[in-house]
């Protein structure tokens, strides 16, 4: 058993071509390297920061923990706020990030060993 306090987990700058529009940091919570069946982390977006369209080989769950964000597919776009959960099925083309006027944080949960395919730019 392990108990963690999210505010005590240091933020790591994300340097990935998947992100655009501003600074993004990540706080790793659990990973398959620790023997977990899933990967879980907090992702923090500065205002207007987001990821490009992408898809995952596993389902993804996003739990909004701070600010306001956008979760979008090719056919719909939703503004989300603290306490809301987005479920994205495996293979669905989507993006998520902060609104222009708010930073945004979410906990992301995916299956261990899952892969992400960037679909743009």
- Element-by-element helix/strand order: EEEEEEEEEEEE
Structural class by secondary-structure content: mainly beta
What is the CATH domain class? Mainly Beta
Poorly predicted ranges: none
- Assigned CATH superfamily: Jelly Rolls
What is the helix fraction of residues, given as a range?
Answer: under 10%
Determine the mean pLDDT. Answer: 94
How many separate domains?
Answer: 1
**How many separate helices?**
0
Provide the CATH topology: Jelly Rolls
Draw up the topology in text.
Layout: E1 12-13, E2 19-20, E3 24-30, E4 38-45, E5 50-51, E6 54-56, E7 60-73, E8 77-81, E9 85-88, E10 94-98, E11 104-111, E12 116-118
Antiparallel strand pairs: 1-3, 2-5, 3-4, 4-11, 6-12, 7-8, 7-9, 7-10, 7-11
Notes on the structure:
- The chain is mainly beta and 121 residues long.
- It has a single domain, classed as Jelly Rolls.
- The chain has no helices and 12 strands.
- The strands form 3 sheets. Strands 1, 3, 4, 7, 8, 9, 10 and 11 form an 8-stranded antiparallel β-sheet that branches.
- Strand 3 and strand 4 form a beta hairpin.
- It is globular.
- The protein starts with 11 loop residues before the first strand and ends with a strand.
- The model has no long low-confidence stretch (mean pLDDT 94).
């Amino acid at each position: 058993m392990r108990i963690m306090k999210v505010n005590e987990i240091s933020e790591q700058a994300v340097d990935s071509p998947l992100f655009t529009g501003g600074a993004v940091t990540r706080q790793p919570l659990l990973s398959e390297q620790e023997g977990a069946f899933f990967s879980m982390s907090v992702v923090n977006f500065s205002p207007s920061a987001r990821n490009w369209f992408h898809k995952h080989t596993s389902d993804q769950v996003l739990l909004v923990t701070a600010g306001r964000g956008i979760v979008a597919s090719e056919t719909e776009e939703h503004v989300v706020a603290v306490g809301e959960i987005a479920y994205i099925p495996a293979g669905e083309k989507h993006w998520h990030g902060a609104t222009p006027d708010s930073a945004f944080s979410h906990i992301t949960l995916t299956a261990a060993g899952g892969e992400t395919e960037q679909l743009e730019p």
